[in-house]
What we know:
2 copies of one chain form a homodimer.
Chain A: E1 4-9, H1 13-24, E2 29-35, H2 38-48, E3 52-56, H3 64-74, E4 79-84, H4 92-97, E5 102-105, H5 110-121, E6 126-127, H6 129-139, H7 146-156, H8 161-168, H9 172-186, H10 191-200
Parallel strand pairs in A: 1-2, 1-3, 3-4, 4-5, 5-6
Chain B binds a DNA duplex through helix 8 and helix 10.
Amino acid sequence: MDRIKVLVVDDHPMVLEGMQTMLSQIDFVTVSGQAGNAYQAMEMIKEHSPDIVITDISMPEISGIELSAKIRKEYPAVKVIAMSTFNERSYISQMVQNGALGYILKSASREEIEEALLTVYKNRLYMSVEVELSRQEINKIPLLTSREKEVLSLIAEGFTNTQIADKLFVSAYTVDSHRKNLLTKFEVGNTAGLIKLAARYGLI
Amino acid sequence: MDRIKVLVVDDHPMVLEGMQTMLSQIDFVTVSGQAGNAYQAMEMIKEHSPDIVITDISMPEISGIELSAKIRKEYPAVKVIAMSTFNERSYISQMVQNGALGYILKSASREEIEEALLTVYKNRLYMSVEVELSRQEINKIPLLTSREKEVLSLIAEGFTNTQIADKLFVSAYTVDSHRKNLLTKFEVGNTAGLIKLAARYGLI
DNA sequence: AAAAAATACCGCCGCCTGGTGGGGTTATCA
DNA sequence: TGATAACCCCACCAGGCGGCGGTATTTTTT
């Protein structure tokens, strides 16, 4: 097998250097270059035609998501692995929709990067374990009605049942019912637990 | 001037490698080692006695904050620079309280790391520009006593005053007092607002 | 000695929690 | 087409506990 040519894209120099070092320790990989933004990345692809592009998601100007779409359009043979921190899980589906074949976290070990590269090279989907785990957690996020979302936001802002009732022109009992349904859906026993989960899921 | 001996601590191998590479490009720096956790870090300090330790904040088991406190206690001559991602700014005040002299983000450039090292080496405080900008928000984070942090965590997990009292072997009245102090310190009117702010500040 | 933290207590008001059910809309199917 | 189910929004009640205003002692820290 030929060595896999990899291009790394990230606006953080530290990550760029770290990835470069880690990739150079893998014997079947040749790093064909580094790019600090999407423009540089497109140029490097044109010049070096890498097999795989590993790109950060959140970058100024053009995001990794847009870059991925651009690559798929102009260079469909080039495979994309998306990379992010723990806190950007919500982008996973967007990346996959835009043609990314892999998804890893910046905390990935050398072994994991190796596996991701090999899997994606064979044109198969790779998801890091942590991502997969958090995907299940995402599926645990209850489906809320629009009214429930409304009430949840107001509770989070510290309003009481009565105040919320006044704002929504309904009885305080009604607000209370919504609150209770929220507690049931989130499987928590009181407001504190509710707000904590809502914050974790990015709902407030 | 002798070369500054630097130890890097981070549980993400990619950051470790990246920082190592970037530091090796600075002529007045010698990297005296890498550590993947706080235990390794303490051993390396004992062995190599570095001038400066650059440590990640959020690490499993022992956090960078605790590590910083430990270093100040056992090796007061060793200076600490804290490092985090964008999303963990709330820890800055805690780090400074625990003896860190500098604070940089993982997106720092080589030049910025250089400046941070030189400043801290002279025993002066260094804050990266991005951090400085958000410091005003950080100053709003109330200083909590250890007991208050404990109670806050338990409230966030959904326990009632009585349950918390049982866990801490104190009266429910006491727990209530702590709760009231928390509400006052956070300037909120009820538990919902308390948990929301605590979550935003990364305290729970 | 002074300040801060942790502890403990009282009483009132009302929000919060647990349980129950009615009216309206939509979807599906016999 | 009428029946049934599912879901949402709304409403009510009883009781417990939280929210909130105090006061005060003991322990620890500075």
